[in-house]
Amino acid sequence: MEAEGFSGCVGFIDGTTIPLSQKPAVDGECFFVRNHRYSVNTQVVCDDRRRIISFCSGWPGSCADSTVYQEVRLSNDREKHLLFSPGEYLLADSAYPADFK
Known about the structure:
The chain has one domain (2-91). The protein is an alpha+beta fold. The protein is elongated. The chain has helices spanning 65-71, 77-83, and strands spanning 9-19, 32-33, 37-46, 52-60, 89-91. Strands 1, 2, 3, 4 and 5 form a 5-stranded mixed beta sheet that branches. Strand 2 (32-33) and strand 3 (37-46) form a beta hairpin. One of its GO terms (molecular function) is metal ion binding. It comes from Phytophthora nicotianae.
């Protein structure tokens, strides 16, 4: 990503929803999203070659991307040093906090 002007960028992060064929039996209303379907929220991290390097799924579709992010290892300050070298970061949309240092 150096050539594109993003020195230290090691990838991209975003959330997406995966449709479910029916309402889940437990807490089904939590899986109902604004486009009138039931879904699971999934967070995907890919590198600059569009290869998936992290994939987390299972949160209700109604959960915001920022909520999912807070629940996964990437947001844990104690573990970031295991995943990122100093100066490395991910690009994300405004749903994510700017906390990669």
